[in-house]
Specification:
Oligomer: single chain
Number of helices: 5
Strand content: under 5%
Shape: elongated
Order of helices and strands: HHHHH
Largest sheet: none
Number of domains: 2
Structural class: mainly alpha
């Protein structure tokens, strides 16, 4: 799990950042244990993981060319 995903968990109130230091983070061990014990942890991580164009097209179940058109129209964005 990356720091990006942990920050998204904090944004979604799955974890509470207890640190006053903007350069670091401190999370309650009980919350971390609870999140790590979730049966759907892989799905939670996948939701917050940035995707490339090929992965985004696969997740949306559209062809890569159709995803390119969606980006061109402003319905999504590509990294």
């Amino acid at each position: 799990m990356t720091a990006f995903v942990v920050r998204r968990f904090v944004d979604r109130d799955l974890l509470v950042d207890q640190s006053a230091n903007p350069e670091g983070a401190l999370h309650h061990p009980g919350q971390v244990t609870a999140v790590c014990g979730c049966e759907d942890l892989a799905d939670l991580v996948a939701v917050d993981t940035p995707l490339g164009p090929e992965q985004a097209a696969a997740r949306l179940r559209v062809r890569r060319a159709d995803f390119g058109h969606m980006v061109r129209l402003g319905w999504g964005r590509s990294p």
